[in-house]
Amino acid sequence: MSAIEVNRRVEPGTVALLGRLARWDLTSIATIRRSYTAVGPPPAPSDPRVRRTDEVIPGLDGRPDVRVRWYRPATDDADAGVALPFLLWLHGGAYIMGNLDENDDRLDRMVVELGCAVVSVDWRLAPEHPYPAGLEDAETVWRRVSANPAGYGVDPSRLVLGGASAGAGLAAGLCLRLRDLGIPQPALQLLIYPMLDDRELTPSIRALEDPGHWGLWHLRANRMCWAAYLGSLAGGEVPPTAAPARAEDLAGLAPAFLAIGDVDGFLDENVAYAARLSRAGVPTELHVYPGVVHGGFGAPPRTPRTAQFLRDVYAALAAAFAPADGSPETGEGP
């Protein structure tokens, strides 16, 4: 597989930023984490229109408690007894890194533009906590909120589950688990370039093995992160809730929105998963953005395609959050 021609294919406004990834040390999980921290932006100040609060959700079925961060409109309609549409958000980080701070500005914007409540989950990371720890944390928060929506000030008919990269992989896995447990699905599974497949089967993931792919996520790092997440399961029988691309049956899942750039190693597994969801009768919306790299959702929209990416995400959320009775939507709109 030939190297990805970064300078030809990536949007010009993004190419200059890829030098940060080219400097990553991919020797070990520890060095990947240090590199990730070094290139990350500083914590974003809170938007005055948004109220952020850190809380702990009680553990479910004997599991540990889960730390979360809530984002709500500063003039919260829930204070007046109005239930808000809701997004449970799972941050990315290849199953081994990431934290609550990194999506503060993006989630603030969602709250302002869509008039919703968001809870971001501080799910446990591998290799210290391999599968199913992170998935169980997400399940705990989802089930606590969906079982008591009034207690959290959210509308039970407008609950969305989503995430980016590994977080989107967790969201897809959680939809599979909820279906298998007979628990109602969310109104939408919002899957932003999900990390779905540990098997390295596709041309797009294998393209990242070539050292000439300068500045993009490397297959060596991807392999290391999957092994950390799967733990003792790596190389053996991996359940679909760990790697959703392995699921043989995708029927009965929530409507799905998938979005990914075409300069992303996860492209082929995402396109294949979207096609299989659609064939299984799941309403599915797929967007592929030319010139957009992995991580484009979290970065400021510096280019036309990344700006379109964000507009499409907000439009999908706005549709899922639309009141069933046809009354006007809340929020400012994208």
UniProtKB/TrEMBL annotation:
GO terms for molecular function: hydrolase activity. SUPFAM superfamilies: alpha/beta-Hydrolases. Residues 87-295 form the Alpha/beta hydrolase fold-3 domain. Keywords: Hydrolase. This is Alpha/beta hydrolase. It comes from Parafrankia colletiae.
